[in-house]
Amino acid sequence: MTILVTGSAGHLGEALMRSLRAAGRDVRGIDIKPSDFTDLVGSIADRTFVRRALKNVHAVVHAATLHKPHVATHGYSEFIETNVTGTLNLLEEASEAGVGAFVFTSTTSAFGSALTPAPGEPAAWITEEVTPIPRNIYGVSKVAAEGLCELFSRRHGLPAIVLRTSRFFPEPDDDAEIRGHYDTANAQANELLYRRADIEDVVSAHLLALEKAAEIRFARYIVSAPTPFTRDDLATLRKDAPAVVLRHFPECEELYAERGWRLFPTIDRVYVSAQAMASLDWRPKYDFRHVFRCLRRGEDFRSPLAIEIGSKGYHDTVFSDGPYPVA
Fold first, then answer.
1. Domain limits at 82?
2. Is 112 inside any structural domain?
């Protein structure tokens, strides 16, 4: 039986295709762009193409999307066409074809304004129970697509799992201030404390969701590296994040100083992936404790898969003032 991966020319899509092929799984990749991991070229907004792509498919991992970096370069209608209509086409055809599992790659960006507490408030503790407040068309379109997944599970019996993934892209931060004060490895190591995951762990969460979908039927999960922080840390994280980090990792100051690295002075949210770990039996390997061990040994903290794929970017254009324009 065949697994369909959408967005196979993209960062996560390629990672999924590599991992499934390496495991000897029968997998079919589709994308609007040709690549070594794309078997069929076409748009998920084209329902006829989707129907052809789903022939003899028993499970779908839907990773194709317009991302936050496209907000400044693509219109609202393009986001609706790809992220909403494309998802609807896949769900309708998957339901009609009797597909046994549908895994949808969503984003923690769906939480939107709920991620940023008011000045003086503690850092936000972000679990699946937090209500999204989308702040751009990307968030709106992903929340709408999540709702369609839930509808098709509840009304049409299609087992569907939504994974709200945190950052796993390798590109430098889109925030010019972050880029100006932290090199990319430093910033991404810091983010593994509260808002990042390694792509190998993201892939493993997707594959476990495929296995568990029939049993779970429908759920949303946050997929992010396990945080060392607790609710008791939230007030101090907002005012003096290094004090909290050094309490958990006393050697961090010395290891960071050896590289000229710095911790972020403040942290405004903490993603909590405990439900994904419990329900999916997910065991992510690449958290801040892993970073710490790698720093001690002088090793790269990225997974072999992350290093192999490298940076793919989001646009055909190269921008002079950052990895992509910011809306």
1. 2-309
2. yes
Going from the C-alpha of 126 to that of each of 117, 173, 198, 274, 312, the distances in angstroms are: 11, 21, 19, 11, 29
Average pLDDT by stretches of 10, the chain with 327 residues: 95 97 98 97 98 98 86 84 97 98 97 95 98 94 97 98 95 83 95 98 98 98 98 98 97 95 97 98 98 95 94 55 53
Name the nearest CA neighbour of 41 among 82, 76, 6, 83. 6
Give pairs for 69-78: CB < 8 Å, separation 24+.
69/174, 69/314, 69/315, 69/323, 69/324, 69/325, 70/138, 70/314, 70/315, 71/136, 71/137, 71/138, 71/327, 72/324, 72/325, 72/326, 72/327, 73/315, 73/324, 73/325, 76/137
Does residue 322 lie within any of the structural domains? Answer: no
Identify whether 96 is part of a domain.
Answer: yes
Tokens at 225, concatenated: 């590296």
Please count the structural domains in the chain: 1
Beta strands in the chain (DSSP E): 2-6, 27-31, 40-41, 57-62, 101-107, 124-126, 160-165, 218-223, 269-271
